[in-house]
Design goal:
Layout lengths: L37 H20 L3 E2 L2 E2 L1 E4 L4 E4 L2 E3 L4 H22 L2 H6 L1 H17 L2 H9 L4 H26 L5 H9 L5 H21 L1 H7 L2 H8 L6 E4 L1 H4 L24 H4 L20 H13 L6 E4 L1 H6 L3 H6 L4 H22 L4 E7 L6 E2 L5 E11 L5 E8 L5 E2 L4 E4 L3 E11 L7 E11 L2 E14 L1
Antiparallel strand pairs: 1-2, 3-4, 4-5, 6-7, 8-10, 9-10, 10-14, 11-13, 11-15, 12-14, 15-16
Helix pairs in contact: 1-4, 2-16, 4-6, 4-8, 6-8
């Protein structure tokens, strides 16, 4: 149906323009101001520790091989002295459960500590921001440079910054791939320009992701892409340590001279300088209360403490505290006393039980696995002497990093025996497939399927023993 044409405005009538609002607000670029202090030092300590582990661990050798290697092609995962196979996926599930429970426990106790200090997004953003400051200066200088027209100096600064960013990203991608392809083999292939297509793809993919996430997206990853920010509130309670602004002490805020008696003027300790907002990597104002965008990095605490020092006010206007502590005016002793509470005790008990069970399981884990596969081409056949023969294929997995010889035997039916080679030699951390023919008198069992057991024992290592169930068919 056609819409009627708008009526013309009457002569002399005031025409009010219609303002069209965009459905989505354009994301404003955040220019985080650099800050120093106790918590900033701790962030850099964690940067050095995490990156030393990530970049260095893949070069560490263990028993003549890479200490940590997830060899997907060979389907073997090496973790120092342990060798895991696809059949050990149970341990991966246990590791994920432990990681989740540890995150729940740490979050219930002290908020988003992981996000603020050890999350890869935070760590690489910190590194990239340091490079950015090196080339472009601190907050005011970067804002001025971005607003200035393109000059040779601006182009050189921007190009230098991005060149270092790309180099860090590619080195990160190269290191990541080095945990799946032996790092020394990867380095030799790279030096000879002989990288395979998959290695090349993943190096550039993770390099590009590092460059994009830490260089451009930054706080948007934390605010919009990371699910942790959305469900963190479920794990908080009034006794959780979080970055808090003491509104009772700070309000009403306002600018003032250091010489003025601000209390007589009815003002609080907050001088409304806005530095706590300028140093925030996600651009929030902590004075508005706890927000899901807050990653708990404590940059605002360091910044506010410096302002308090200059004004000769007590530190701690912004500090780590709890809702209960602010409401009840608790000190450090009362806050620490409330760390142990039903929620944290429950998380801690479950986490401890699973960790103990996992460590016990790994300690008692047999360095031997056996899979029995029936030869489906020949289910059962009669051979010389009227005996019935079944053929099996045994996959003997030597999980030890030393060659071993294994003795094979079978039980379950009277007179049952193996008529092929009964000793299997397996190289270190390898799988040895062996065809086994088993014979028995037809009168030893009932018609149809009869349960039997293959026993595999390491010679000179009686404690390494596996008993695997199978079935013997009698026609």
């Amino acid at each position: 149906m056609a819409q009627p044409a708008p009526k013309p405005a009457a002569a002399g009538a005031k025409v009010i323009p219609i303002k069209e609002d965009s459905l989505y607000e354009s994301e404003k670029k955040i220019y985080a101001r650099s800050v120093s202090g106790t918590f900033a030092n701790w962030r850099w300590i964690l940067v050095w520790i995490t990156q030393a582990i990530f970049y260095g661990l893949c070069w560490l050798e263990w028993n003549g091989r890479q200490a940590v290697l997830f060899d997907i092609v060979e389907r073997k995962f090496y973790l120092f002295g342990l060798v895991f196979w696809p059949q050990d996926v149970f341990y991966l599930a246990v590791l994920l459960i432990i990681s989740a429970l540890a995150l729940f426990l740490f979050t219930a106790v002290a908020g988003r500590l992981f996000c603020g200090y050890a999350c890869p997004q935070t760590v690489y953003t910190e590194i990239f921001m340091w490079v950015e400051k090196l080339f472009e200066g601190d907050r005011a200088a970067r804002m001025k440079l971005d607003a200035a027209p393109l000059t040779a100096d601006k182009l050189a600064r921007k190009a230098g910054k991005h060149a270092v960013w790309v180099a860090i990203g590619l080195w990160t991608g190269f290191t990541f791939v080095g945990y799946f392809t032996p790092i020394k083999t990867l380095a030799a292939s790279f030096a000879g320009w002989q990288l395979g297509p998959w290695e090349t793809f993943w190096i550039f993919f993770y390099g590009f992701a590092t460059w994009g996430n830490a260089g451009f997206m930054r706080e948007q990853v934390c605010k919009y892409m990371c699910p942790y920010a959305r469900f963190q509130g479920v794990m908080f309670d009034p006794d959780t340590l979080i970055v808090t602004y003491d509104a009772e002490r700070g309000e009403p805020r306002g600018a003032r001279s250091k010489k003025v008696d601000y209390k007589a003027a009815g003002k609080g300790d907050c001088v409304d300088c806005g530095i706590c907002v300028q140093v925030c990597p996600t651009g929030i104002d902590i004075r508005n209360g706890l927000q899901y965008e807050c990653i708990g990095c404590s940059a605002c605490i360091d910044a506010c403490d410096q302002v308090m020092d200059k004004m000769a006010y007590p530190r701690g206007l912004i500090r780590y505290s709890t809702e209960h502590a602010l409401a009840e005016h608790w000190g450090r002793k009362e806050i620490v006393a409330h760390i142990l509470r039903p929620r944290t005790l429950l998380y801690g008990a479950i986490l401890s039980a699973i960790v103990i069970a996992a460590v016990t399981g790994l300690t008692l884990r047999q360095p031997l696995k056996v899979d029995v596969i029936r030869d489906r081409a020949t289910l059962a056949r009669e051979v010389e002497g009227g005996l019935i023969e079944n053929v099996y294929r045994l996959q003997v997995m030597n999980l030890a990093e030393a060659p071993r010889r294994f003795a094979l035997s079978v039980t379950g039916l009277e007179g049952i025996q193996i008529v092929t080679e009964r000793v299997v030699e397996a190289p270190p951390a390898s799988t040895q497939a062996v065809a086994v023919r088993v014979r028995v008198n037809p009168e030893a069992g009932k018609r149809g399927s009869n349960p039997i057991h293959f026993e595999v024992r390491a010679l000179n290592h009686d404690e390494v023993f596996v008993r695997e169930k199978a079935s013997f068919l009698l026609p």
